[in-house]
Amino acid sequence: MINSKLPKIWYGGDYNPEQWDDPQIWAEDNRMFKLAGIDVATVNVFSWALAQPDEETYDFAYLDETIDRLYKDGIYVCLATSTGAHPAWMAKKYPDVLRVDYHGRKRKFGGRHNSCPNSPTYRKYSERIAEKLAERYKDHPAVLIWHVSNEYGGYCYCDNCEASFREWLKERYGTLEKLNKAWNTRFWGHTFYDWDEIVVPNELSEEWSGNRTNFQGISLDYRRFQSASMLECYKLEYNALKKHTPDIPVTTNLMGFYPELNYFEWAKYMDVVSWDNYPSLDTPYSFTAMTHDLMRGLKQGQPFMLMEQTPSQQNWQPYNSLKRPGVMRLWSHQAVARGADTVLFFQLRRSIGACEKYHGAVIEHVGHEHTRVFRECAELGAELQKLGDKVLDARVEAKVAIVFDWENRWAIELSSGPTVALKYVEEVHKYYDALFNMNVQTAMIGVEEDLSGYDIVIAPVLYMVKPGYAKKVEEFVAGGGTFVTTFFSGIVNENDLVTTGGYPGELRKVLGIWAEEIDALLPGSTNRIVMKESLGTLEGSYECGILCDLIHTKGATAVAEYGSDFYKGMPALTVNKFGQGEAWYVASSPDKAFMEGFMAKLVQDKGIRPLARGPVGLEASRRAKDGKSLLFLLNHNAHAVTAELEAGKAYADAVSGQAVSGNTLEVPGYGVVILEEAK
Amino acid sequence: MINSKLPKIWYGGDYNPEQWDDPQIWAEDNRMFKLAGIDVATVNVFSWALAQPDEETYDFAYLDETIDRLYKDGIYVCLATSTGAHPAWMAKKYPDVLRVDYHGRKRKFGGRHNSCPNSPTYRKYSERIAEKLAERYKDHPAVLIWHVSNEYGGYCYCDNCEASFREWLKERYGTLEKLNKAWNTRFWGHTFYDWDEIVVPNELSEEWSGNRTNFQGISLDYRRFQSASMLECYKLEYNALKKHTPDIPVTTNLMGFYPELNYFEWAKYMDVVSWDNYPSLDTPYSFTAMTHDLMRGLKQGQPFMLMEQTPSQQNWQPYNSLKRPGVMRLWSHQAVARGADTVLFFQLRRSIGACEKYHGAVIEHVGHEHTRVFRECAELGAELQKLGDKVLDARVEAKVAIVFDWENRWAIELSSGPTVALKYVEEVHKYYDALFNMNVQTAMIGVEEDLSGYDIVIAPVLYMVKPGYAKKVEEFVAGGGTFVTTFFSGIVNENDLVTTGGYPGELRKVLGIWAEEIDALLPGSTNRIVMKESLGTLEGSYECGILCDLIHTKGATAVAEYGSDFYKGMPALTVNKFGQGEAWYVASSPDKAFMEGFMAKLVQDKGIRPLARGPVGLEASRRAKDGKSLLFLLNHNAHAVTAELEAGKAYADAVSGQAVSGNTLEVPGYGVVILEEAK
Amino acid sequence: MINSKLPKIWYGGDYNPEQWDDPQIWAEDNRMFKLAGIDVATVNVFSWALAQPDEETYDFAYLDETIDRLYKDGIYVCLATSTGAHPAWMAKKYPDVLRVDYHGRKRKFGGRHNSCPNSPTYRKYSERIAEKLAERYKDHPAVLIWHVSNEYGGYCYCDNCEASFREWLKERYGTLEKLNKAWNTRFWGHTFYDWDEIVVPNELSEEWSGNRTNFQGISLDYRRFQSASMLECYKLEYNALKKHTPDIPVTTNLMGFYPELNYFEWAKYMDVVSWDNYPSLDTPYSFTAMTHDLMRGLKQGQPFMLMEQTPSQQNWQPYNSLKRPGVMRLWSHQAVARGADTVLFFQLRRSIGACEKYHGAVIEHVGHEHTRVFRECAELGAELQKLGDKVLDARVEAKVAIVFDWENRWAIELSSGPTVALKYVEEVHKYYDALFNMNVQTAMIGVEEDLSGYDIVIAPVLYMVKPGYAKKVEEFVAGGGTFVTTFFSGIVNENDLVTTGGYPGELRKVLGIWAEEIDALLPGSTNRIVMKESLGTLEGSYECGILCDLIHTKGATAVAEYGSDFYKGMPALTVNKFGQGEAWYVASSPDKAFMEGFMAKLVQDKGIRPLARGPVGLEASRRAKDGKSLLFLLNHNAHAVTAELEAGKAYADAVSGQAVSGNTLEVPGYGVVILEEAK
């Protein structure tokens, strides 16, 4: 548990006082932080240029003063290493820190996320400043946690990356023969005879439009390599920090479903996962919930930090609407309900210049506390204080798991054919959403996760099956588990080479089917999934689209069939009894109604009950520790709704302590109720 | 007055006889010019390569002959300096004349607008050829005016520009400390410790997609710098010309609302403003009128030159439809009605090769005069001769002014948040359009303009408030003026740094309000402006959108309020009595009906009367001098309409001299009537 | 006739056994080829890197073995020279083989179509390997034909190309004076004084967005030059092959209406035309038919090779749907019906890695023959064997010809104005489609083709009229022919310089009209073509759009007039009697109903009869030789239709030999019937 030094939900956020050289403003900040119940400030995120004005000078006077000033007023710090953007002098003196972009252009100084992860200069100086910070603040009582760099991301294609990529490939493949095989380079006569013939895959070589490639093998490996290169930078800082402060936890702020980094790999080297939650205007709240669950899943359920969210407005969306009254609180509790032990904002005081000045803050440009936004922040601050340590380190338990894998995602997105309409994350969300709407708690897991704790494991579009994974699924099913996968699964191995002998490749055995062809539907066209008999509420017929696998049962039972086209009557949904369990195959991408019926049937078969019942928009999540549990009821509607609780339990409001009578409860519009449960 | 040597509305246009090495064609040209009443030809626009075939050779024989040949037939010249496109040999020998583009690519020879404005070579040779032309033609009686370069535009991002930018910044800020402050470089750790660390802001550094930037400060300054750099080129030529021909006026052709150059700065160095009017197919005629008014406003109402328009067709629109019969005359008189003292075409004879060969011309490819286009040109030529000097130098008087500022535009377009839907020029046009439809004469003014002559000053989206401007507004209102501004005004200073203490910053005092939050509406969403009581025709409720400021009155009166959302009931329109006048704040972007009612109310309060009344599409404009005035009535409809004139005046047709009886008048479809008015 | 060594329709396709180093798989391949009736394999397409692992080593062991193994089982080879993609080592050692792209970027190794056509290295080594292959396999009985490189395409803009372009221009123009004239360089002052001042036209100089240019002259010449440069590469290999194997035919696979290469020029150096037929999902079947006819027209009607098509699925479309049952056979026979003497697939066995692994193949990933796709392939194989040599070398006879010219296409696409809506290929297709729907056989011809064999010649949008072509048309019409052309014709010469004196320039005499203006219509706007009297089924009025020429008759008769706008009543369709024939001018782009009525009238006037009658979707085509003919009936509908045959003939099924009774015949859904005809 990271919160031991400050045993409550940490509350605060990014704070950049260096943008104001004004003691009066700093004093105001502290005054207002206290008014708002803020006890944690994330500092030093972008102060590299300030702390290191040239190659040999380091000056932490400003940081000393900041941390002391905060701590004097009871505010702890999340201390960043400042390496998220390199100084201008460094770019001028050592251009190797500058990236070459996807279009092959050497960049000049500017922006952030701007350092080449294989730049010797960047690695040297980022590690060095991390170590200097650790030495300096290792005993400061204010320091709760280290925040390495900021929102790692973006790829580089420079000569240093090219050279490092070749070394990485040597490490991975050993011989060129193996590499040529893995990348199938005899296609289009691309055989490599010397490692130095390999060039980075971007718009100047094998790729175009970001995710289009001639060779999936090299493109997939380059994503692995860039993710690993950046992770290497993180680890250099991590180790430098740990050398001096072995007991202070270290994190870096992730970005949910961010496509470019394999966060399951990263999480192995993070003491705690933290992430920045910026839903877009059209993000469904179940998608936000799924993202929280994924972030929790990165470390097998360990609670995480909500490192950033906006108090009200964003600035980089095309249309930045205000969070409606109550919504900031609602979304904060949604994070906590799903595993967050912190509620932190970007930012505590609004910048007055540059591109984030129209991003919301606890202290707005007007500068005083008499604003709607501040009032809502202060109310939440007070509530979190009342909540104390009740939720800290409590776990979210789930019997249903959905598999998500970044490398599978890369492979699907890089695929040339059969359809551009297939979006992996959307397919995953379809399954999640159906479970969410039933208030069935779901875990988001990676492919290295042990499956034995789950009743149901769903792996939508498991296109890439890694070594041993089919075996793991077989064991899970044989032991009584329910496994679900879909069209376009089991197609390739970890190098994106097709498993011959019939789709879905290594999954054929457990699924008991053969997929002969895969039809891609035009936009607007659909087929139908026609149930052969009712399965609970799953009856009649449903729309489906995107891809339709033309499958033959090889042991499985066809539960539904296609309703039209030349493959009318072929199986659209199959189930295969395998050992003690069963394995389902959904041959196309179904509509929402099918999903809900299908998930309801599976869940019911396993005796898994919803956490609460209520109308659409009522979200429930439970966190438990030490035999106690908290039930969060969150109402995403603007109007009040009634939640129906599990009978036979006693409930009390976790904030007020008041007992709840009966087993129904009204949750106000955009409201949140947190209940302590007792049997 | 520029027209003294040829005291009538100059008529003619761009003429490139060098494209035909054929005396017979030249003779035909002169014959047809005379047939069409053409008396001015713009020559030498793109002849640099011809006049200077290599670095040291100058040969003006062709130009001598051209000017003499024209003048012999009574045709004067607008003499261009030919520096709008550099010669190919220069690009080869001195690559510094070639630009580096926004994407960071060094260009090769090609196109026009192709010279780097900070190229030593370009500056040296453009100045030199201007001087040579001045020396040679200083006493030629044909020369009416100098036309420097052509349609300046486009930015460069080369190393010479980078070095010059640093010098320009040193000049502007003096110290890096001030620059760092102005650009808020502590954001994202961008502090500069050496001037040479500063790089040009383009897609390789701080910007992307043309108008997106990480740092508004540097991007804004780069726009200022490039506009100034090009102006510097213009001034070098201007001074070279003036040295030898102090009495011949100098101009360069502008392009209306062209975004990249701050024309208010440019106009200070132009003896007369001239511009090229190429409405797009979807340009409203009130937008064209507004653009004429802006061009007139650049030099505080001084008449301008219509330097280019097409006789019929354009070539670079996606769909180049013909100007319908009568429309060329209609749009020519629209220019004159709003301040033009010339009617010039691009082009007199159509090219037969390269990209403008499908651009219309007085002499079409067929080569003879028996075309619809030529007939219409000749009829207009005859009419302008009859009109003589009646309109020359006459002024357009307006009691209503709309403020337009290029730097404000840049800042708004560079802003990250709150919405991409906000288009400054469109918001300005909404106000203009409402006044235009009432035939209320409006001036388009810059922020340096004295306000004392106006009754009403409207500054839509005055996002950037420059030093002293708030004071100027306060004095104007205190003195009895009516001031109007809108949502997202008063936010930043001239460096795009937010004025803290509450929006609308420096304008809070005169407006008597505080804007606490700014909500951005999704596309398709709207709110309503609900009038608390009727103000003239302004009653009931209206639609509004884009942004909604959530304001509190601090002395002002709420005249209307929002009709929905959580800020329902908050003020949407306020008025503040301030001294003898009043200041209005429109908190959202209203619909057309609101605009018309609101403008009608303000105008009525000030006793400003329409120039004429009639159905939609009847435009009226008045030009006056020496106590006399001409009233232009222009019918943008295909059908005839009836105009209702001010009673109690006597009117006579300015072309025919015939008196008009009664105070109504029919204006034919696409027709124009010019009336001499007498009290 | 190319098929003499294997006198039947060759059946097979691209085969890349080097992707599997597995004798068991190779044995399976042969077994399945025989099952499917496959007798030709295209090998060595992408094996350059394999055969030449470094600069001096050549190793054809693998190829020897492949060819022997195939031939042993009776499978012949189409032997590729493998130069469609250069080896990685070559790119590393000799970067001159790498292209510079349209954006000015030097590419790195990757993809295919990747060699600069003016690279000394590429030319040297591609010629050398072609010669080595010819020497080695000149006496191998398996070799049927040479397949040079693969799908030539793409342009390069490197320094070698720039230097070669200058040489090419010297050759073409002789003097800079002539070049300056041809390109009209006095426009925008672009006069060249030295050949070295000329730079390649791409996004760094004169062009942007692919087909937009400032100077049509240079852009047109660059297209000619690049097409010629690549053809030069082809010819180097062609000559190297012919040196050793004068009797083995040589081809390269073309791509139908591929825009970048002038295939009429290429076909002169090809022994037989071959092409790859990959209809997009929205390609009308009449467009595919037109493309076959064009490929046949490249060599004046000589039969061609269908070199590639997919057995079922593509991979590079956005949505890759399966070919429905029967459709592969239908489209194969469509090719044969229109002149193909081969039916070849890409590919015989599916790749397991890289970007084409989801492209269909005869042998799918499952690896066995029990698939729908394989069954359909095998059925077609059997049918083609039964068909024997009946169709080989038979000709398609046509009395109607449609003119298509790549240089005209380039010029139209490069034009700045009057409209972006004009698509040359689409206009050509409109005429073709009307004839196709009547089952009137049509030839697609180039501008060098002799016209004397045709009754009707249609030249839609003949914008560019090359030297002598107007004369050729006059002679054709004078001799009794019917000529049709349209709006925006006769405008420019071969350098894209306008023919002055009135549109349609050199075609004015034969057409008897003058086009004064050309109006471009906005998207969604239309005019009407109103018939002045009925001409057969052409009566009443029709919609038209895109462009409307405003024409005056100068000898011609106005047959129809515009129905609206200010040019209502002006001629919209004219016919001019000229000698024994007549010349029609269609002044706008008409709707489908007009086209069908107009084509029906012309065809009827000439007594040309349909090959068969039936509902929409019934396609007929005839091939004849030695006094015998085969009539192909192809049903593009999913349901059966009845075809009405010409009376008075005897018909027998060409495959089964069974006589057909009566003169109607049912063709099944997606079905094909091939009839032997006898009088």
From TrEMBL, chains A, B, C:
Record-listed E.C. numbers: 3.2.1.23
Record-annotated Glycoside hydrolase family 42 N-terminal domain positions: 14-387
Pfam families linked: Glyco_hydro_42, Glyco_hydro_42C, Glyco_hydro_42M
The protein, known as: Beta-galactosidase
UniProt keyword terms in alphabetical order: Glycosidase, Hydrolase
Substrates-to-products reaction catalysed: Hydrolysis of terminal non-reducing beta-D-galactose residues in beta-D-galactosides
GO molecular function terms noted in the UniProt entry: beta-galactosidase activity
Gene3D superfamilies: 3.40.50.880, Glycosidases, Golgi alpha-mannosidase II
Residues annotated as domain Beta-galactosidase C-terminal: 617-677
Species assigned in the record: Paenibacillus thailandensis
Family membership: Belongs to the glycosyl hydrolase 42 family.
Domain (Beta-galactosidase trimerisation) ranges: 398-608
